[in-house]
User: Fold these one by one.
Assistant:
Number 1:
Amino acid sequence: MAEIKKKTTKEVKKVETKLNPKVWEVAYNEDLVAQVLYVYNSNARKGTAVVKDRSEVSGGGRKPWKQKGTGRARVGSSRSPIWIGGGVTFGNVGEKNWSKKVNKKMARKATCIMLSARLRNKALEFFNETSKEAKKVREDISKLGSSVLVISDSEELQKTVRNVKGISFVTSQKVNAKHLVSNQAVYVDNKIVETLEKRLTNDK
């Protein structure tokens, strides 16, 4: 896991509010995170693969040879599944459903686990969403040379960083474990810390 450079950590301000240990100090649970990621990846999968069966393959209308007298096995079409160029038996028809369900508590817990892990490994920083500091964050991120996740509800900040290569932007209501696992460094807006904590702890 790549650490954010020292130059970056000095320029970014620390969080201004007290952190909820239920979100930021959760022990790492590899099995839970893997289970939740498996569901997310399955739900992103599209079952659009399609192959042709023997009735859809062109040709094969003429009987290859007569029924009797040739010494060969009887056959009615050159598009039989056992022939090269024939149709596929029990193939995909474009209607495969890969979607799975995951318990909401498990999904929230996995997000808390990854936020805690990123914070412990010094791969997560807090910043104030101001025009001046947003530009600093953009400059720092562009120098990191790795995938970076910015968590904020500010549309202005999104416009500031969206065209920087390697940056992913997500709001406090949509961030999940997959976002945190897919990026090596995380920036969290101070303004959304309380909102994020309420969402992940269900106001508890």
Number 2:
Amino acid sequence: MEEITAKQIALAARSDEKLDFKLILPVFVIVLIDLLGLSIIIPLLPIYAASFGANAFTIGALGAAYPLLQFFGAPLLGRLSDKYGRRPILIISQIGTLIGFLFLGFANTLFLLFVSRLIDGISGANIATAQAVITDRTTEKTRTQGLGLIGAAFGLGFIIGPVIAFVTLALSNDNYRLVAFVAAFFSLLSILLTWAWLEESLPPEKRGVRQKANIGLGAMLAALKRPEVGLLLALMFAQQVAFGGFEQLLALFTLDRLGMNASSNAALFVFVGVIVVAVQGGLIGRWSRKYGDQKLALMGLLTLGIGLGLAAVTPRQPLPGYSKAELTAELNEGTLWSDETRPATGNIRISLPDDDQTGWLGLIWLMAAMVPTAVGGGVLQPSINSMITKRVDSREIGGILGISSAFLSAANVVAPLALAGVFQLFGSTAPFLIGGLLLLGLWGTAVRIINKS
């Protein structure tokens, strides 16, 4: 009898360590569909802005517009999800995303590009709320793997979305606005799926008491003072300054360094997505169980720092068949400019490589650098967020994930503005080199302090 009881206990313990994919599947699919819209746009947006005559700093400001508004919106909606449930808040945020994509599709000025990103940003609690749903449906032992599936959805999105963007651009003769409308369609589909399929994960008896949703710097500073999560939130912010700048400036970097247009960047994002899916869809679960969240975060800092450093020194060599004149013409033709208002080709303010000395070395080098970059970026956020959720009361998980998202948003505001300014002043190597050095410095510091936090 004692032997049977011991076996039952062992089986129960093992089942507690396995993620129940049936519970996670609806939110995973919904996030994936929602992220298709985002991943369709990301390879295009910096190049789209460049086609309107934006310089590097203006493109950085456009990249900062979304997280600036998300900085205020995510903590508010995160706490509202603790009070009213996850499902209605997720739907509200998705509607904002849809409206933002529609504005992007109809944009014919830089001003409207900014408006589209601001609208999307103020309702941008999609990911924080989805993380809260997964947290509701996982145990402490399976949480890292569950949160990693959000990253896997990102990875799949960055495989499928850029392919959709590539096909759309090819079939429409590089019509950038049509890509935005395709993104809007996927956003609408995610709303319908959430409405019809997603069940509420937070029952009324587990919802927090009515409270004012503290947002902004006050809430972030208060969270930083909490000894159980303060250092983790600071680490989340710092690593995202480096990695967020890389994400925001990658298309601009490849345009300047390798002469890659929107279609070529879409293909590069597919390559990154395959790596992220492999890491966050499978490897992170095994790694977290074997090594723990702390070692996983340290590994992420080290590999991401090395990857960014390698990417920074990518040789400036455009691909075979590249034509500077043809790329300049494509940038001018991919927008809503009329013949009367179309700017001269000289108004493209991003430096493009010359036609001589084309080859494959630059692309091969960058793709090699993307391997440690994608692996490091793939493990950092899930491992840090998992540590955070294990150190707070279950009734405030939505709120603390909203605060974590606010730190990410704040970093995503700082990164493109600061690093795009560095890009404009010192060239395309400097931003990634600074990011890599920052991460390696963080790794050295985190080795000493993370185990004590």
Number 3:
Amino acid sequence: MPERPAGAHPTPGWRFESELWSEGFCAVAGVDEAGRGAWAGPVVVGVVLLPVAVYPFVDSKTVAAPRREALAAEVRARALAWAIVEADAGEVDAVGVLNATLAAAERGLRALAGQPVAVAELGRRAAGAIDALVTDYLRLPTQRWGAWDGPRGIRHPARADARSYQVAAASLLAKTHRDDVMRAAAVRWPEYGFERHKGYGAPEHRAALARLGPCTWHRQTFRPVAALAPRRGFDPPEDNACQTLSE
């Protein structure tokens, strides 16, 4: 399979997909998310199935916004199938950020399988069933998906967005879509600066929360947000207890 030469830093290729192909899986897709550590806005999951080739796709965090946008457009043009799915702040508050992320990933895969599931964007629905996945350390519950003939195989290595073309492509779709969503949120709530920090725990965001309190776009159960708007008798989900990740 086409692969870039190995170097000092991880370069995207087809290693993990090849392992799954060797086990008998056929349609192996990449999955990645953006926004799990943010204090406001949705978690966004991208799912991408590419034809085997060499691509310029890289981890979305390693390139500037104009380049990300250009690469995301190329993903849409070249992918065999792709989906973008949101889990909004209300879903995150209700079930926890990890469960919301897993549910969004499942919705994307169901949509690509032709099931009537609401997604943010969908391109070229998969011709056959996606039977395996590569994710960026996201342990999707594939064992639960037998009822709808979902993917059964998975690889979830760390830094897969830097080591798999497909996971990198999924990261580009998720990141650029979420940035667009947060810029739109900034029009409605200009005081928070969402267009700049995208809902993460930047000093500007902390200051705005301290001054204004949270808006409906915030994840009310995340501890830094909840501290400014305590909800009597409410216990946040365990995986929302302390979210201080950055982009």
